[in-house]
Design a protein that fits this description.
Layout: H1 6-9, H2 17-20, H3 26-33, E1 39-43, H4 49-62, E2 71-75, H5 78-90, E3 97-100, H6 101-116, E4 123-124, H7 129-138, H8 145-160, H9 168-175, H10 183-200, E5 202-203, H11 205-218, H12 220-229, E6 232-235, H13 243-253, E7 259-263, H14 278-281, H15 283-286, E8 291-295, E9 297-298, H16 303-314, H17 319-322, E10 328-329, E11 338-344, H18 345-361, E12 369-373, H19 379-388, E13 393-395, H20 405-420, H21 431-440, H22 454-475, H23 481-494, E14 503-507, E15 516-521, H24 537-551, E16 554-565, E17 603-604, E18 616-617, E19 624-625, H25 628-633, H26 645-662, H27 672-681, H28 686-690, H29 697-713
Parallel strand pairs: 1-7, 1-8, 2-3, 2-6, 4-5, 6-7, 9-10, 11-16, 11-17, 12-14, 12-15, 13-14, 15-16
Antiparallel strand pairs: 18-19
Helix pairs in contact: 3-4, 5-23, 6-11, 7-10, 11-12, 11-13, 16-24, 18-19, 20-21, 20-23, 21-22, 26-27
Length: 765
């Protein structure tokens, strides 16, 4: 296992340009010394890409080749930009600008707006969803909560792909977007939304980029001023740029080629926002003389974790897969990834919490453990399980560390204490002791409070400052409290937060760019990963890349799990994610014969499993089905239906009567999808009826005669009438089966955005 050291937190600033290159491997050194012309760095997960590009900038600055004020490093989140600024400062290149695309554009727009347009820049709205709701109301289009979120996402996609409202229906059809409403309705809402912004004199985050592009295109004098200021550009996570961001980058460059881009097509997971790896993959076509360096030495993960990551991509298809990087672990061997099957989601959460408790008891810090899931709605059951196990946790995407009230208050108090303090050489307490004394009056104690909640969150924030003071003093023994306060201020300006001691709960999208000693990938079932609404081959491949990102977050321990049902006592019909086929022990690649899930080497949680059917083929086109709803129908959703509508209605009436008699919900008899399949197949005997998904042996025995009678002649004989209420199987005889109707795609939560983020990018305030 790796552990953070004092040296890595507060390293000594290199004393010469050559010292900046110390410790780099040959490929990283090649990146750091390639200071002229276009440079493309293809960097796999865990290969030290941030280290390579920050050392490249620092080496150029320290060698006098690059002037700090002329370098602009661009990335996609305020956190990543803050980390880059922190690293550059520690390498002696503190004057370099490291920002997000939005932040850099906003600064330029604010500066040049009075000169280029006149007056003050319109006010920036942080969240557009309320304005979109008002636009929908003005168009007399009622949007529920999920539709509102999805329509807002479509508007954002239009803007970053530079699609105007009247072009949206054609563009959506051409790109195969799964539109949440009629495309013409979305175009009307988009038009009204833009009009509302103009009427109120406000702009949104996408406008920041659009307006900056417009100013640079229309005002050559402004463009020339910007280009004279910034002469060298570095773009991190280049696989995630949108056409609009690429257009802005081209205008910044103005035909010059002092550009270094870094990316990995296998980590493209934001295409829903307009991000595309095409610019990374086509870099050499646009720049034939570019220097290309591949980073494949993985310093983060063990060979076992890297082997699983390579195996995942080995089954991938498409353009990005053709350019995948085969990682080579540089670490010693570790434990094999653990695969665990649970009976239901609460059991899965409890199992994860139990293992996390064991890791913490064995010495792994809570901050070095993460639970990652596909959609935000999955977090609740893990929050409860961790709280029950007395394990501290933090939700990724919550309020920024330095914006928390207790952190602001602590900074103010420490600043006052620093002004009043005397020379430590005259007998004053150490810096950590002074910090403890100051913060003890605001809720910090040597032991954390019991349980979770606001009190525990406040304590964790203050404890992070105490730990940082200890690390700071260990690295700089002669420093004063004033020096530590200055360090806090530097970190606040750079948004370079200290580590909060708690298990991280995060969506897979929010985990991008982070790493932990132990990672728990949970909820790995069909319909969740890949998500239900991933239909096309490219959408499925992006889901695979999302799992790849999750796997490569782990340094040492990796746990993968899934639950057979949502709730205790549920039907247990879920299947492990197809992406694990051929990788988890006892499984085979789809289409090959293999053992059932949970075979040799795999673990089972409580509740055991159930017998699996073989692959289900579409009875119309013959394609292997994976979507739960399509499996029920036994055909692709878009394949022709030969539904007997009269039979379907008779089945629905019969089901209602049965449900009333049994005192159970209608879906406990048969789900809508199963009824549809019966009305389409029109089975002629028990064998054919039992082949329909959702008609198991128990239901065949109980309802088979009724159904076959309805199919045959539309009626039920007196001998086949439903049993009297007193003779029916009691509803309490066994737990009611879980509904196998598909849940809402997002389970009521945004699967992509974390609070405070927009389109995968945090705007820097």
């Amino acid at each position: 296992m790796t552990a953070t050291t004092h040296d890595s937190l507060f390293p000594a600033i290199p004393d010469s340009p050559d010292a900046v290159l110390d410790g780099l491997d040959p490929e990283q050194r090649a990146v750091a010394t390639a200071l002229h012309g276009p440079v493309c760095v293809l960097a796999g997960a865990g290969t030290g890409k941030t280290r390579a590009i920050t050392h490249r900038i620092a080496y150029g600055v320290r060698a006098g080749i690059l002037q700090p004020s002329t370098v602009l490093a661009v990335t996609f989140t305020a956190r990543a930009a803050g980390e880059m600024r922190g690293r550059l400062r520690m390498l002696g290149a503190g004057g370099v600008q490291a920002r997000t695309f939005h932040s850099a554009a906003l600064r330029q727009l604010q500066y040049f707006w009075p000169r280029a347009v006149g007056g003050e820049l319109p006010r920036l709205i942080e969240r557009k969803i309320q304005l979109v709701a008002e636009a929908g109301a003005r168009c007399r289009i009622r949007l529920d909560r999920n539709e509102l979120r999805d329509v807002t996402g479509e508007i954002e996609w239009c803007k970053v792909t530079q699609t105007v409202p009247e072009e949206y229906p054609a563009a959506a059809a051409k790109t195969g977007r799964d539109v949440p409403r009629d495309a013409a309705e979305i175009a009307r809402i988009y038009t009204t939304y833009e009009q509302l912004k103009r009427d109120r004199g406000v702009i949104d985050f996408e406008d920041v980029l659009l307006l900056t592009v417009g100013v640079l295109q229309d005002r050559p004098d402004v463009a020339e001023t910007v280009r004279s200021q910034y002469q060298h550009f570095v773009v991190d996570e280049y696989q995630d740029v949108s056409p609009l961001q690429q257009r802005l980058l081209d205008l910044w460059l103005g035909g010059r080629d002092n550009l270094c881009v870094v990316g990995d097509a296998s980590q493209t997971i934001y295409s829903f926002t307009g991000a595309t790896p095409d610019f990374l993959l086509g870099f050499r076509t646009r720049h034939p003389d570019a220097t290309v360096v591949k980073l494949v030495r993985d310093y983060r993960s063990t060979p076992q974790v890297v082997g699983l990551a390579n195996g995942l991509l080995g089954q991938a298809r498409g353009q990005a897969a053709a350019h995948r990087l085969e990682l080579v672990s540089q670490r010693e061997a570790g434990p094999d990834p653990a695969y665990t099957e649970y009976a239901d989601e609460p059991a899965e959460a409890e199992g994860a919490a139990r293992r996390i408790r064991q890791l913490i008891d064995s010495g792994v810090r809570p901050s070095e453990i993460a639970v990652l899931y596909r959609i935000n709605a999955q977090s609740e059951v893990y929050e409860q399980a961790l709280a029950d196990a007395s394990v501290p946790y933090q939700l990724r995407g919550a309020e920024r560390f330095f914006e928390r009230p207790e952190v602001r208050e602590a900074g103010m108090l420490l600043r006052g204490a620093a002004r009043a303090s005397i020379d430590p050489g005259e007998g004053e307490a150490t810096i950590p002791q002074q910090v403890r004394d100051v913060l003890s009056s605001r809720g910090w104690a040597s032991e954390p409070p019991a349980g979770s909640g606001a009190v525990r969150d406040r304590w964790e924030s203050l404890a992070a400052i105490v730990r940082l003071s200890e690390d700071f003093t260990a690295a700089r023994p002669t420093a004063t409290l004033a020096d530590f306060v200055a360090e806090l201020d530097e970190r606040a300006n750079a948004q370079h937060a200290p580590t909060v001691e708690g298990v991280t709960l995060a969506s897979l999208h929010a985990a991008k760019g982070l790493e932990w000693d132990a990672v728990f990938l949970v909820g790995l079932t069909e319909g969740t990963l890949p998500i239900t609404y991933a239909k096309t081959d490219e959408q499925i491949e992006e889901e695979r890349r999302l799992l790849y990102v999750g796997v490569t977050r782990a340094r040492y321990h990796l746990n993968l799990s899934w639950a057979l049902s949502r709730s205790p006592g549920g039907r247990g019909g879920r299947r492990p994610s197809r992406f694990l086929d051929g990788l988890r022990p006892g499984s085979a690649v789809r289409g090959q014969r293999g053992a059932a899930a949970g075979g040799a080497g795999a673990e089972r949680g409580t509740g055991g499993g159930r017998k699996r059917r073989g692959p289900v083929l579409c009875r119309v086109c013959g394609r292997t089905l994976s979507d739960a709803g399509e499996i029920k129908l036994m055909r692709c959703e878009d394949c022709p239906s030969d539904l007997d509508e009269g039979l379907y209605e008779r089945l629905r009436v019969w089901r209602m009567e049965q449900a009333k008699t049994l005192g159970q919900p209608a879906y406990c008899v048969f789900t809508d999808k199963t009824l549809l399949a019966i009305a389409e197949v029109r089975p002629e005997g028990e064998a054919e009826l039992s082949s329909i998904a959702g008609v198991g042996a128990r239901k065949l025995d109980k309802f088979g005669a009724d159904v076959l009678a309805l199919v045959a002649d539309g009626g039920i004989s007196e001998e086949q009438e439903p049993a009297p209420a007193g003779k029916a199987e009691p509803a309490t005889a066994r737990p009611a089966p879980e509904s196998d109707e598909e849940p809402p795609d997002d389970l009521g939560e945004d699967p992509f955005e974390e609070p405070g983020e927009s389109s995968g990018e945090e705007a820097e305030k």
